[in-house]
Amino acid sequence: xxxxxxxxxxxxxxxxxxxxxxxxxxxxxxxxxxxxxxxxxxxxxxxxxxxxxxxxxxxxxxxxxxxxxxxxxxxxxxxxxxxxxxxxxxxxxxxxxxxxxxxxxxxxxxxxxxxxxxxxxxxxxxxxxxxxxxxxxxxxxxxxxxxxxxxxxxxxxxxxxxxxxxxxxxxxxxxxxxxxxxxxxxxxxxxxxxxxxxxxxxxxxxxxxxxxxxxxxxxxxxxxxxxxxxxxxxxxxxxxxxxxxxxxxxxxxxxxxxxxxxxxxxxxxxxxxxxxxxxxxxxxxxxxxxxxxxxxxxxxxxxxxxxxxxxxxxxxxxxxxxxxxxxxxxxxxxxxxxxxxxxxxxxxxxxxxxxxxxxxxxxxxxxxxxxxxxxxxxxxxxxxxxxxxxxxxxxxxxxxxxxxxxxxxxxxxxxxxxxxxxxxxxxxxxxxxxxxxxxxxxxxxxxxxxxxxxxxxxxxxxxxxxxxxxxxxxxxxxxxxxxxxxxxxxxxxxxxxxxxxxxxxxxxxxxxxxxxxxxxxxxxxxxxxxxxxxxxxxxxxxxxxxxxxxxxxxxxxxxxxxxxxxxxxxxxxxxxxxxxxxxxxxxxxxxxxxxxxxxxxxxxxxxxxxxxxxxxxxxxxxxxxxxxxxxxxxxxxxxxxxxxxxxxxxxxxxxxxxxxxxxxxxxxxxxxxxxxxxxxxxxxxxxxxxxxxxxxxxxxxxxxxxxxxxxxxxxxxxxxxxxxxxxxxxxxxxxxxxxxxxxxxxxx
Length: 748
Ligand code: ATP
Ligand code: MG
Description:
Its EC number is 5.6.2.4. The protein is α/β, with parallel strands linked by helices.
């Protein structure tokens, strides 16, 4: 075994992975086993012991925050030589490549990047143009489907060729015009960024070769969540080895010696199947890279054995997986704490009180605590309670800063200034603040641009030639164009340019004079954006407006995790999806109810249920010392209370690992679905009175008889009072959902 200071603090398998040379390397291992740590040490080792140059290294992480952390850690290990490495997300790396090579694909190097909201707006525009009924062909769904196609590297021509149904043909048509509009706007959406890089490599072998010569070491973290396009991208980037048949005949020449590839991941943590990520990348790695070496890591360094045993027990219920044996030598630690709350407010209150208690009794700081939930919307109640009890917190994800209207408006102005053909941004601010260019005027300019085959911006500049425009609108348009031209001519730092936009357009004055308290916070947000620009200027003295906009549009959810001192002081609220790769001493896993987590849409869908279970595994394994699992007996959903049964994942955690807190009536959680909790009995009592007839009080697992369908077992109960619905499994009669108040049903 090689001895080297960089290998201290690594176990033998981790060392093997760090020093491995040559063939592709796959590290598959459970959560907290040091995969990310291995990557970091491997980079440091390559640089200090194997004569690799920093610019030969490309390391792909899942978020910009993870990239920053990895860079910092390598920096600490080997010093400032690390600067020239590419440690970044797929998107950032591809954007860099595309900016350099944009001309080959017919773009300028200042192309715009459309984020999800922009691309949905564009798709909505396209659907309107195609006169599609939004009820039958929802633009959002079209947007999502186009994204899926791109993740599979299917372009619109191929999609059209494959289309069989009317719906598929319509989709392909929308895809084609959506793509045309993007190209006209000199823009790419998020999925294009990956797909076009693959296209670039495949169409221009010299470009591919250039990057293959450059990147001699390619590493990918969270490999289980790469989608097909990203998978092919890696193959293109690494280069193909020479391929011969068994008889030694050359099938394919290798142009450049393939780069060393090292990917790390955990099939059990694949949680983006809905985004086209596919664990087939892991499962088939060995097939696609026949000379690959696989290293397994089995020791978990993050969590107590109790937490790990819970995680192992839950994930072992998934059928399509390789069994793993993850262990920890950190001792059992405290038991997992379980809590059945009366409702979601009670659940949040429990969390707040527990955080206080831990602070008093165990010196736990709020910064060591994370609260996870399944959907973004769930954060609101925690926020409300935390504000009320004075507990400092930070929401990661959710209504993100960059999604706030005023922030997007200002960014849209900046984008138009950087790239006038960015029509979506242009039209977003055309009449913001209101300047008398109404929908009618906009439509006329659009018609003019279509007829003349000129970009929208040019049509605006030549508005006097557009027929039918009222003088008032025409003047407003002229003023608007003059304002933009004036701003474009100014050579100002980005932050000052942003100020000028706010002043010149009247945006700032409008907010300042409105008297609406919400506008005050809008102003704060705009000022915050200007300080983002100032920070950018300080960090990148040569950075251009285009660079700034790019950085802003690539900010991932996880980047808003507070860092430094802040991080010591505030509870982190986030969805389970955002939590990947992170660790916290104390974790609250909330909303463990069937229909919440696992999510409603996964019930009855075995494959989606397995993905939900992987999400539960991710959540549990973020915890280092203490884990709390909770559910609410009643939770409002869509404005009316629902009493969801306990999450099936709760029943999968071995009972002896959990210490149930509070009212004993709510404790026997294994049976909690059968026995009434206080809140359940309140709502059930209400529902019993419905319609003046005695309605059975049902829980999942109860046996019932129905006048028509016969014997059955209750699967779930949803809603309350006269809206209560029960789902009953009638065996060969199938599953039926019945309105309890009207169903001729009796409890046995
Ligand atoms: P995930 O699957 O959640 O991404 P991971 O496999 O990437 O987890 P890391 O985040 O690299 O795991 O490591 C988990 C924790 O264990 C970190 O705090 C890391 O510093 C620590 N760790 C990893 N290996 C060792 C080791 N050999 N000795 C001590 N601590 C270690
Ligand atoms: Mg990791």
